[in-house]
Amino acid sequence: MNTDKHRWLRLSRGRPVVLHRGSPAVSPRNRHRSCSSPYLCSSVFICGFLLLLVSPAAAWEQAFTREEPRQPLHVKDSNCLQVTLHDACSEDVAPADCGAAVQAGMDAWNVVPGSYFRFQSTAQATCCRAGYQREGANANCISWREDSWPAEYPPAGIGLTTITYDVAGGAILDADIELNGVGFQFGTTCATGLADVQNTVTHEAGHMLGLDHTDVPGATMRSRSYPGDCDLRSLEADDTAGLVTIYPSASDPGICRGPAGGVNLDCSTPDDCGCRAAGAGRGGPGWLALAAAAVLARRRRRS
Fold it and tell me: Mind listing the domains of the chain with CATH numbers?
């Protein structure tokens, strides 16, 4: 499984620059994101937000496989994606408020006329990890990293989403969101300087279902945000157009399928390796970031 594609934007003399790193450092833990027969799998990182100049508007974008021939990423043969929240949620927010904000972020996608797609919540997990197990249970997990933000992750990232997919057709096998509790403080009230939980999850949930960024101003899947931003909580026409096109009501498969192997709530593996510490996770498509100056002004570290 390839984990060698990181794409993000940064400010360079006032212009956004797309960077491609062919072979970033990959920790031994990340190298365990492997998938063998019967699937040929891969993982992809999809960028999140930056506070940048707006490019000319274009329509919504669907994410594609990295491998040729490139295939559109999508949830296959299921009218839902079951999502699991780590029970610790964010250290900055009361658990009930945090959970409600996460749910609201997913619910934004659940009420779009003309689309059959739904996010469905499972019981909460005591452990999350990003990646896919061909053998054993899995979870499409949302978790906060409170103790460390890996060096191979975008340093200014607020959130990172990992999608594992079937290379042959682009079917999404696993999707996981990790949020940066080390470098950012989270909130639920749109307060200045705080990364809003619902705002962030609404955007990242779009990546989980296969959407990439759009240049349309005002869209939830736009590639920019700012401290205290809550504009992304509600979907705009560009976002709903993408959802309805990929998952039209007329094509409803009529069944909600859970993760392969069942829902994994404790990071258990077939060989009983155990799980990692609460709030930990790995991997990502989707990272949320701020312009460098804003990040330096508002980052915080926990001891």
Answer: 6-298 (3.40.390.10)
